[in-house]
């Protein structure tokens, strides 16, 4: 997957696209896979990097949603559990079974949550990742030795899916490309092309090469998440807003706060959300908050009260109380929730997805959640086919393996997240002794991974590599800052950039990463 080759293909192609998709997150790239795998001509444009926004800042769970079961949204839970099973089969190198324990501190909590999670099992059916059961206090402590013991009665264990979100995004992009899509990062849509008030394409600006393109399409799809309303306003200045953005933050702690391979789930926090403490890449992620926000931005800032909220709640349930000094990284993301009547609290808004068609024919897909991206994409392409009056072709994505598919990727150790690509990465690393060197003593990331990311995964900046091709920014922001100069040096060699570019990249990255330090 080479950006220069993508640009060349774009410039050679003078026919009309079937679908132009705006937005390179889970929904946009999922829609590109859906359209291309049916044989349609698909172009995807992302103004920043793939997964730069919400899609790389999730709780790292592919799940049915115990919270939505509490809310009584059985249809969403059923759909999500079905999609969880599909994704687990299509991307086993990235989607793994993760056991969760709901600790009980009152006599009624064990039976109460036990019944609810049995229903969760029942809804999952054959797609289940494991059976739930009530645990004794002794068994709970055996599985989670750092759980708060005062008043502990026992717990309930259940199973859900865990993944690496931005790694999946990159694998999905490669899947879409293998199916025939052209995908470009750092290309911004600046306007729509219209004929008789009907959208017939877009004007796009390649930010890297400072070049403008006029691109024709039967249908344009807005899959920009929290930025959906901005594109809708570009189309129609009288459009009413449909997005109710909500900010969620996560803190990352050392593994000692939650050793082992079992997560903790707290069903009800002070702000009405579920709280998770999850083992991930030899760290612990604690999240998430729910804070309504008025302004959407690519780099949302964690609020002090959000950080305090997570630290105080983590202290309630962990025997080792974390403080600010223990936070290795804190990251914020915005949920693209869809407005619903008079609902005021974003925690109460549904995660069902919504399809909207403007009078000009712009299709907007909004809402939803990571787990259901494939179903959202299927529904979007179904609607786009009708709108474009194209021949109908059935969906093929239920049984389409995601790039990197490997049933036993754990054999690749630290390269396991690359799936089957790990074989080629190892060959690359063997080419030169320098490629085998780790970039920093605090990380197992190698120079060879930088070369791979630039050559095959369209990494264009230091941030692309440290934040999304690898997860160093999220795992330890301070360490990642120290890695930046080395990454910039190797990327400059591959991209044929000068020292001025390197200096600018390091400075930009340091400024960005400072926002991830508490």
Low-confidence stretches: none
What is the tally of helical segments? 16
Radius of gyration: 23 Å
- CATH names the topology of the largest domain as FAD/NAD(P)-binding domain
Q: What would your notes on this structure say?
A:
The protein is an alpha+beta fold and 518 residues long. It has 3 domains: 182 residues, FAD/NAD(P)-binding domain (3-Layer(bba) Sandwich), CATH 3.50.50.60; 164 residues, 2-Layer Sandwich (D-Amino Acid Oxidase, Chain A, domain 2), CATH 3.30.9.10; 106 residues, Helicase, Ruva Protein, domain 3 (Orthogonal Bundle), CATH 1.10.8. Helix content is 36%, strand content 21%. The protein is built from 16 helices and 18 strands. β9 and β10 form a beta hairpin. α2 runs parallel beside α7 and α13 crosses α15. The radius of gyration is 23 Å and the shape is globular.
Give a nutshell description of this structure:
The chain is of the alpha+beta class.
What key phrases describe this protein's structure?
single chain; eight-stranded mixed beta sheet; ten-stranded mixed beta sheet; 21% strand; Helicase, Ruva Protein, domain 3; alpha+beta; D-Amino Acid Oxidase, Chain A, domain 2; FAD/NAD(P)-binding domain; 518 residues; 36% helix
């Amino acid at each position: 997957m080479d950006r220069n080759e993508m640009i060349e293909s774009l410039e050679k192609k003078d026919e009309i696209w079937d679908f132009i998709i705006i937005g390179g997150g889970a929904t946009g790239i999922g829609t590109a896979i859906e359209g291309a795998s049916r044989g349609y001509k698909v172009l995807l444009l992302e103004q920043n990097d793939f997964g730069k926004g919400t899609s790389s800042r999730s709780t790292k769970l592919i799940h049915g949603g115990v919270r939505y079961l509490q809310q009584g949204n059985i249809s969403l839970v059923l759909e999500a559990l079905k999609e969880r099973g599909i994704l687990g089969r299509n991307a086993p190198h990235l989607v793994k079974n993760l056991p969760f324990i709901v600790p009980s501190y009152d006599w009624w909590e064990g039976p109460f949550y036990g019944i609810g999670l049995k229903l969760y099992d029942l809804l999952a059916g054959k797609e289940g990742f494991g059976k739930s059961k009530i645990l004794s206090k002794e068994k709970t402590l055996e599985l989670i030795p750092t759980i708060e013991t005062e008043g502990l009665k026992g717990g309930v264990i259940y199973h859900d899916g865990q993944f690496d979100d931005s790694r999946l995004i990159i694998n999905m992009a490669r899947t879409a490309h293998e199916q025939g899509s052209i995908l470009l990062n750092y290309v911004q849509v600046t306007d729509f092309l219209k004929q008789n008030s009907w959208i017939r394409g877009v004007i796009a600006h390649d930010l890297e090469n400072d070049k403008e393109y006029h691109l024709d399409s039967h249908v344009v799809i807005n899959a920009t998440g929290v930025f959906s309303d901005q594109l809708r306003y570009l189309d129609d200045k009288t459009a009413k807003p449909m997005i109710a953005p909500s900010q969620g933050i996560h803190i990352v702690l050392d593994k000692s706060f939650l050793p082992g391979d079992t997560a903790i789930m707290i069903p009800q926090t002070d702000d009405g959300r579920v709280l998770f403490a999850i083992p991930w890449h030899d760290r612990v992620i604690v999240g998430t908050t729910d804070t309504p926000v008025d302004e959407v931005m690519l780099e949302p800032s964690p609020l002090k009260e959000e950080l305090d909220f997570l630290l105080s709640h983590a202290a309630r349930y962990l025997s080792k109380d974390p403080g600010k000094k223990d936070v290795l990284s804190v990251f914020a993301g915005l949920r693209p929730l869809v407005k619903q009547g008079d609902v005021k609290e974003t925690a109460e808004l549904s995660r069902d997805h919504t399809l909207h068609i403007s009078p000009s024919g712009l299709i907007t897909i909004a809402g939803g959640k990571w787990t259901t991206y494939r179903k959202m994409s299927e529904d979007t392409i179904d609607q786009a086919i009708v709108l474009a009056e194209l021949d109908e072709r059935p969906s093929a994505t239920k049984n389409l393996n995601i790039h990197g598919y490997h049933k036993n990727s754990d054999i690749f150790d630290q390269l396991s997240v690359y799936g089957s690509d790990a074989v080629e990465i190892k060959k690359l690393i063997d080419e030169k002794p320098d490629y085998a060197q780790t970039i920093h003593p605090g990380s197992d990331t190698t120079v060879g991974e930088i070369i791979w990311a630039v050559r095959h995964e369209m990494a264009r900046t230091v941030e692309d590599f440290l934040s999304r091709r690898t997860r160093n920014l999220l795992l330890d922001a301070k360490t990642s800052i120290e890695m930046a100069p080395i990454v910039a040096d190797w990327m400059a060699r591959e991209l044929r950039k000068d020292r001025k570019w390197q200096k600018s990249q390091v400075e930009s990255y340091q400024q960005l990463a400072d926002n991830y330090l508490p």
